[in-house]
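If you are new to this repository, start here. Below is one unmodified record pulled from the training split, so you can see the exact layout before writing a loader.
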Amino acid sequence: MRRISFVLLLIGICAIDLNASDGYTFSCWPNGWRKNSNDRSADMFGIETSRYGFTLDIADFNQVRFGLINNSVGYEQALAHRAEKLKQLPVAQLLIEMEIDGIRYLARTCKAGKTKGVKHLQDVRMWESGRYVQHYDFLGLDVRSTSGQALACDAALDVVAWPASLTFNLNVSPTHPCHNAVLRLGLKSEAGHWNQEEKVEGHWKQDETKTVSMTCRVPIAMQVPSADISLTAESGQRFPVRFDNTKDCYVAPVNRLKRNWPTGYADIRHYDEFTITVDRSDTSEPVPFLLDLRAPANITGLCPILCDGEGRPTGIPVQLSKNWHYKPMGAYLMAYTMLPTDKAATYILRVLYGFYGTLPSASHAQLSLIGYGGNGRWDQLAMGCWGETTCFDMDMSLVDVAITDIRMLMTRKGINGRKWGWTEAGWVDWQQGYENAQKDIVLLGGNPH
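And here is the target side for that same chain:
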């Protein structure tokens, strides 16, 4: 009876999910990430959401398109569009400008746009990519004056896309001290005009990072949502929730969470539970929300579920984006969702690991490879939290195969291996078997080739 109830619960979740009206996003490389050496197509970066589309030629920032998209279909059905709607977007103008001592400098390309090779797009790093949020940064902006003089600085463009907003963050640190600087961003399009500037008064120290942020909301009249949101862990710890302009959402950063149960590669049957309280909101629309959890009890397999105040799953999707390779941040979970705030309410955001009730959990995560190599995305599927059950490198941004890991469920790594740990990947076993077979052929006097 318990298993039947569990299946019915999942059916209910899926039914609500299919009818969700809080939007979606996709990101892509319309002409491909890993190309043949004779492919001369432009390296185009694209974002399509339920409301707008955006494309950028990374070799030429003058080639920009931005416009409204009337996507009346659902998240899954939108895949049938492929990249056709992106090709129909109207031309736009993107301004990335720095003024130093009265001299104007413009960014027209980035490091990935100036280099060649099968992996040159790794200088566009993918941080998060899922249903609600696309987050990338473009490293090594080439910043030059109108006369062609290069500005000595370390500059990057950070892009965060939600279904109804696109945020640009320009991060700059000068190689040499300078004075009286202004950072500017602008986007001019048929859908609207946006611009923002940040003045650096007086002395700007060497290697000191300054940022200017600009959020383009669709429609343009849409205002920043105002809400009172609080978050409390099951341990009683309270964590602040603030609106972050660089991510255009309410963010709850959770660090050093107290737990009284085993973590890591163990038999984890507990959850991290956070009570989210919405006391006030000036909008009837769902507001963007992020749980930034560092570090999870086990990063390899985890699944965030948004529940009502009684602990029943609401069916509202939660984007599962994570990474454990980037040392400056450590292992982290970025759990994005659209939080209903049409009335005062209490929710429970439950992060489960090894089991959900008596059954092994199932998760499909976007795994960032920043810090590991390639700086792209793997789709990582896990049963429980005991290793990667299956991994896909769909863009082949790190390796030249699409399937990178296949690991059996509920097995040990060898006859003496411990429980709840990683097993060997399928390709490792195949490779070892192939090498052993070659040795056997030689011993028998044959030719292994």
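Two things worth knowing about this chain: Residues 133 and 162 are 5 Å apart (CA to CA). Residues 1-21 have pLDDT under 50 and may be disordered.
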